[in-house]
């Protein structure tokens, strides 16, 4: 919960103000205001200059982008899970057919009749059913094996989780890179959050029977996402000081931090009724500490 407080304070008191104080982004908002809107604004508010708040706009965009990525990831997971559930039902039906065919085989051996005698004699109806079920089982044998493999594990679901978590990591790294001052406190919060995310990602891959080699490669790539975001954010700030890129980057990262705090960490922690007071204390401590640090940064 302390990490949630740090993320929340970093979003509201560190990254958003950095974006709002970006002179290039502010001037860009003033220059790109529509002429029709300016005419209406001048009529009702006089000659006071109006600038669109791009920093706040991109701050909200950062929140919404991550939210949409999360929703899309959950939709894909539900879609594949539902498809696999139907596949498992087909497997169970095929197993029933196999068991019935085996029972009729036993009947043929017990009575001493051949299959031709069963089909044309006393057991004609049962013999016809026997041949039909045996044919169906043979035709579906490959499908049975294929579905069984899918039910056992599907790497696509793990890939969806990997993409969503990687997007989070890049956006959070951009917040550090675009920061106008040292952000060691934010780095500590990100490391704590990413360690839990890496653990969850590993469990997801193991659940879907991904090979150890693929798991190692994926975790290595995931560990590079946040440094990549830091480099990208720093590159925008260093090479484009006269443009709004640094402010946009900080605003997007701020929206991401807000999402992580209020949509991921806090709800999950409060679902457990134990230690509620201690959790709230940790949340306030993290928020208050970052608030105090903002006075000197």
From TrEMBL:
Keywords, A to Z?
Answer: Membrane, Transmembrane, Transmembrane helix
TM region positions: 57-76, 156-177, 215-237, 243-266
UniProt keyword Transmembrane helix, yes or no: yes
Do you know which InterPro entries this protein is assigned to?
A: ZIP (IPR003689)
Molecular function via GO: zinc ion transmembrane transporter activity
Subcellular localization, as worded in the UniProt entry: Membrane
Membrane topology term reads: Multi-pass membrane protein
Give the GO cellular component terms, alphabetically.
Answer: membrane
Q: Which PANTHER family match?
A: ZINC/IRON TRANSPORTER (PTHR11040), ZRT (ZRT), IRT- (IRT-) LIKE PROTEIN TRANSPORTER (PTHR11040:SF140)
UniProt-recorded name of the protein: Zinc (Zn2 )-iron (Fe2 ) permease family
């Amino acid at each position: 919960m302390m990490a949630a407080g740090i993320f929340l304070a970093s979003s509201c008191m560190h990254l958003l103000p950095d974006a709002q104080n970006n002179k290039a982004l502010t001037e860009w908002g003033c220059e790109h205001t529509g002429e029709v809107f300016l005419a209406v604004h001048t009529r009702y508010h006089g000659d006071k200059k109006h600038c669109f708040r791009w920093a706040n706009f991109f701050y909200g965009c950062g929140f919404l982008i991550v939210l949409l990525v999360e929703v899309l990831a959950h939709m894909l997971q539900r879609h594949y899970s539902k498809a696999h559930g139907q596949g498992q039902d087909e497997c169970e039906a095929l197993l029933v057919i196999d068991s019935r065919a085996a029972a009729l085989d036993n009947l043929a051996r017990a009575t001493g009749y051949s299959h031709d005698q069963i089909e044309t004699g006393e057991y004609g109806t049962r013999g016809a059913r026997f041949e039909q079920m045996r044919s169906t089982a043979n035709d579906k044998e490959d499908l049975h094996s294929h579905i069984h493999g899918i039910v056992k594990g599907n790497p696509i679901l793990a890939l969806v989780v990997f993409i969503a978590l990687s997007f989070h990591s890049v956006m959070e790294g951009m917040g550090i890179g675009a920061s106008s001052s040292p952000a060691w406190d934010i780095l500590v919060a990100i490391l704590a959050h990413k360690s839990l995310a890496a653990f969850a990602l590993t469990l997801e891959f193991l659940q879907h029977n991904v090979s150890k080699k693929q798991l190692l490669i994926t975790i290595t790539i995931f560990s590079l996402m946040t440094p990549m975001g830091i480099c990208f954010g720093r590159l925008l700030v260093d090479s484009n000081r006269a443009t709004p890129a640094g402010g946009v980057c900080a605003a997007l990262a701020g929206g991401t931090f807000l999402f992580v705090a209020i949509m991921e960490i806090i709800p999950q922690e409060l679902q457990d009724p134990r230690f509620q007071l201690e959790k709230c204390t940790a949340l306030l401590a993290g928020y208050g500490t970052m608030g105090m640090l903002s006075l000197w940064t």
